[in-house]
Amino acid sequence: MARVFVYGTLKKGQPNYKHMINTAKGLAKFQGRGRTVEKYPLVIAGKYNIPYMLNIPGTGHHVAGEIYSVDDQMLQFLDEFEGCPDMYQRTLMRIEVVEWEGKGDTGEARAAAEGIMECFVYSTTTYPPEWVGLPYHDSYDSSGKHGLSYILRESR
Description:
The protein is an alpha+beta fold. It has three helices and seven strands; from the N terminus they run E-H-E-E-E-E-H-E-H-E. Strands 1-5-2-6-7 form a five-stranded mixed beta barrel. The chain has a two-stranded antiparallel ribbon with strand order 3-4. It catalyses: epsilon-(gamma-L-glutamyl)-L-lysine = 5-oxo-L-proline + L-lysine.
């Protein structure tokens, strides 16, 4: 199992969360909520209003999201879904645990309770330079006050 941190449309209550709970695509178990240890710019960009975390450490905000344990099948699905490695790149980032629901008395659970763990995150280094000038967000909600409605793939 691998740990993945999601900050955009794959979170609970967001338009693509349905993929996280579709067991035909693999297993994804919600573990808790967290935020990036380093600051990153989270922007909403492109004609489909997609959330992107730009891989520019030290700029922007501590980005909030959710931590999942996923099996190899789900990780492969997420790579394809996120257009990895062209649109997003999957990299390890340090995530500060804000709330942990993971069960068991494993070393992982103790580490989570102590605060910081490494998770795979889909961020991007392949973006138009003007995206750096877009507003930065600390969390993403597709119906947030930014007013930029996400366009589902099936509607594009």
